[in-house]
Specification:
Elements lengths: L2 H9 L5 H26 L21 E2 L4 E4 L2 H14 L3 E4 L2 H23 L3 H14 L6 H8 L1 H18 L7 H7 L3 E5 L4 E5 L6 H8 L11 H12 L4 E3 L1 H14 L3 E5 L4 E3 L7 H17 L5 H29 L1 H5 L1 H23 L10 H10 L2 H16 L7 H20 L6 H23 L3 H33 L4 H7 L5 H9 L1 H20 L4 H10 L27 H22 L3 H9 L7 H10 L20 H16 L7 H17 L10 H18 L29 H8 L2
Helix pairs in contact: 1-2, 2-13, 2-15, 3-11, 4-5, 4-7, 5-6, 7-10, 13-17, 16-17, 16-18, 16-20, 17-18, 18-19, 19-20, 22-23, 23-24, 23-28, 23-30, 24-26, 24-28, 25-26, 25-27, 28-29, 29-30
């Protein structure tokens, strides 16, 4: 079997049981089983067969006694916080470095030794002055003229050397640190390690190089010449070496030890100790102990034999499969159009898997059940199909998730059902994407309602109810924006056009409609009239009225290419068709369908709208020009296909309604006396003509629906022409040709349009 054949079998209706039927239904069954398997893997089975299912706020029927001792482990978030606090308690380590004194002394002695060498090498006093200035400037100790004189004086130079050394030998061993390194420690205290001690000291008590510079002034001799103190300060600044330095490696090592020392358990329950007391309300502490009890029993393997565990896994899988099968059966029996399209089935499968995966993440972090984004698939399904399917899917999803271990109980079921149902219904209320916040409010209201009900049942406090409602609001916002974000992609994949998209396409400011109104105003007015008739007829039989209206707006956009060849756009005077041969006139008329399709492709209109353009004339004959051609050349070899619209025939109820309303509206405009009876007779004859021509053979319309359509179109036309109905009339004799009246209408209506185009 080729890949193309396989894909056709997936979405096409199977013609035979083998292999078509097996492939068609088998792939869908595999997807169902796959979702059930994924759910089973994401949510392991409950540890004990008879383990009590209790929720916060419930009253236990009997005592729950610990059969084994077990620790109460911290949650991942709690353990992370405890470790972070333990690490933060470890003070940054600063270490005294005794070698700093020798390093600084060596640097200073080298500085003065170089000055001595410079002076010894100078040939004259002026040369000595310049050489000293250049050297000191190169050493980043630029001297003033007065300071150069001081250096040239051997006695003062020696006094300066001693003052610098005394400051280093006296003050540096007391320990000094860089202020910026103390700031990087970001702590009010540091751990100071010296050869004699290891203690915690305030940061303010640690001397810095600023303190060192200030205290060095005490070592300047009395009666020192001007510039002496400043020169000592510059030399110390140039060669200062902190004797207290941070040890970031040791600090991180101690903090890691502190993290490792944090116990994973913060309590213990002894064997025989009561976990839950009978006839008392279950609180957070009891729930936490129950979870810890489950985890310990599972860790110790005290869950029965492997066979029993395997049977429990099998039972959980069967539960998931049965619940999901309800949705599969619903699609098979009541939504065959969804079941039969593989694209639709894939989207539903992906939505289910996404919901289950998100729920598993929520359960893994022990987050509130309100964060399970059940509104996301509900909004998507309601927008793509309808609220009824969305509610059914939401109910199945809620039952599926509430049967998993982390979500057992009424809390999860009520929360998910309420939120999913309101999300499904909100799309019906909200029809524009700009109103996203409106259905966010509706979904949030569902979460609030569920929180209030559960609060009353479980005895929650007001802050707890508000917190649950707040989490629901967060979930509603995230679900709504995710649904709106993915909607264009899903519409493209499923080839479904949602009401929101249709409403956007119906905007008269859309480029294509604006062009139509400007370049072919008569056609635009005709389209508006036909849209009013077609929408009412579609609503009368339960078809998609909005799709019908929007499709009608665009059905004649191809006339913009040659607008004056259609009578509704001719201001009067000579008809362009008078200068054309019949075959050319027929070609111009039939090509407005193909030109319209090209424009729709350029505008990237949905496939559902393109169908209105291609199907609104079906494969009808353009008989007026065909008759002209035959009359001009009776013996000529004419191809009737050159005088037919390209088709196809209407494939849906909506495009069939457009065909009927389009023809009737044009024909009604040339009725001499559009009384109610005359309009009714005209509608009957044109509809019957379409039936006789086989143009409605491929549409799913029934005779009952055709009767309702005719009634709505008749009422609509009567309303349009009510000002002319009161004429005193001698009743017109019916024209035996059902399309003859239409032949006098605009050039856009089958053979009638073609004839009118020549007027």
């Amino acid at each position: 079997m080729t890949a193309r054949k396989f894909l056709e079998l997936l979405s096409g209706s199977p013609q035979q049981r083998w292999p078509d039927g097996v492939v068609h239904h088998g792939v869908r069954a595999l997807l169902l089983v796959g979702v059930a398997v994924a759910t089973t893997l994401l949510f392991p089975v409950a540890p004990l067969t008879d383990f009590p299912v209790l929720e916060r706020g419930m009253v236990a029927e009997e005592d729950v006694i610990a059969e084994i001792p077990f620790p109460i482990y911290r949650s991942e978030a709690e353990l992370a916080r405890a470790r972070q606090d333990a690490a933060a308690a470890e003070k940054p380590i600063f270490v005294y470095d005794g070698s700093a004194v020798d390093e600084m002394l060596s640097a200073v002695d080298g500085f003065f030794a170089r000055i001595d060498s410079v002076l010894a090498a100078a040939a004259s006093a002026s040369e000595a002055r310049e050489d000293v200035r250049a050297f000191m400037t190169a050493q980043a100790v630029p001297p003033s003229a007065q300071e150069v004189n001081l250096i040239l004086d051997d006695r003062q130079r020696e006094r300066l050397r001693r003052a610098v050394r005394e400051a280093i030998l006296t003050e540096l061993p007391r320990g000094i640190a860089q202020p910026v390194e103390l700031e990087e420690a970001d702590s009010r205290q540091v751990r100071l390690i010296t050869p004699d001690s290891d203690r915690i000291v305030p940061v303010d008590s640690v001397r810095t190089i600023l303190d060192f510079f200030n205290r060095a002034q005490a070592h300047v001799p009395s009666m020192a010449p001007s510039g002496f103190a400043q020169l000592q300060h510059l030399i110390l600044v140039r060669y200062v070496t902190p004797s207290i330095r941070p040890d970031w490696t040791a600090t991180e090592r101690e903090r890691e030890r502190a993290r490792a020392a944090v116990p994973t358990a913060r309590g213990e329950v002894l064997q025989g100790e009561r976990i839950v007391t009978a006839r008392e309300r279950v609180g957070d502490a009891e729930i936490e102990k129950l979870r810890a009890y489950q985890q310990e029993l599972e860790r110790l393997g005290q869950l029965g034999t492997d066979g029993r565990r395997a049977s429990r896994i099998a039972g959980q899988f069967m539960f998931n499969l049965i619940v999901l099968s309800l949705l599969g059966a619903l699609l098979f029996f009541y939504r065959p159009e969804v079941y039969g399209d593989m694209r639709h089935v894939v989207v539903l499968t992906v939505l289910l898997l996404a919901l289950v995966a998100a729920a598993a993440v929520v359960a893994g972090y022990q987050a509130p059940v309100a964060l399970v984004p059940i509104a996301f698939p509900a909004l998507v399904v309601a927008a793509l199909w309808d609220g009824r399917l969305a509610i059914n899917m939401s109910l199945v999803s809620a039952i599926l998730l509430s049967g998993q271990v982390p979500f057992l109980g009424i809390t999860s079921l009520l929360t998910l059902v309420t939120a999913g149902a309101l999300a499904s219904l909100s799309v019906r209320v909200v029809r524009r994407r700009a109103q996203t916040w409106s259905f966010i409010a509706l979904i949030t209201a569902g979460y609030v309602l569920a929180a209030v009900v559960l609060g009353l049942l479980r005895g929650w406090s007001v802050p707890e109810i508000l917190l649950a409602s707040g989490w629901g609001g967060v979930s509603a916002v995230a679900s709504a924006f995710a649904a709106m974000g993915f909607m264009p992609l899903l519409e493209s994949f499923t080839r479904i056009t949602t009401d929101q998209t249709l409403l956007e396409l119906a905007d008269a400011n859309r480029p294509l409609l604006r062009r139509l109104a400007r370049e072919a105003p008569g056609t635009y007015a005709h389209s508006i009239n036909v849209a009013n008739l077609a929408e009412a007829a579609a609503a009368a039989i339960g078809a998609n009225a909005l799709l019908t209206r929007v499709g009608t707006y665009y059905h004649d956009v191809g006339k913009m290419v040659r607008p004056h060849y259609f009578i509704e756009n001719q201001p009067g005077g000579r008809n362009p068709h008078d200068r054309l041969k019949p075959a050319m006139s027929a070609s111009v008329v039939r090509h407005h369908v193909l030109e319209g399709y090209k424009l729709a492709e350029q505008e990237k209109l949905p496939e559902s709208i393109k169908g209105f353009i291609l199907e609104h004339h079906g494969t009808q004959a353009i008989s007026f020009f065909y008759a002209q051609a035959r009359e001009a050349d009776p013996d000529g070899d004419l191809d009737s296909r050159d005088f037919e619209y390209p088709g196809p025939k209407p494939q849906s109820k909506e495009t069939a309604i457009l065909m009927l309303a389009d023809s009737v509206e044009s024909a009604a405009r040339v009725l001499p006396e559009p009384t109610a009876d005359n309009i009714r007779e005209l509608v009957d004859r044109i509809v019957q003509g379409k039936i006789d021509a086989g143009q409605l053979d491929e549409t799913p319309l029934t005779m009952r629906e055709l009767t309702a359509i005719k009634a709505e179109i008749t009422n609509g036309l009567a309303g349009m022409y009510h000002q002319r109905i009161d004429y005193p009339t001698a009743r017109l004799r019916p024209d035996p040709d059902p399309d003859r009246a239409a032949d006098k209408a605009s050039a856009s209506q089958s053979e009638a349009e073609a004839k009118a185009a020549t007027r």
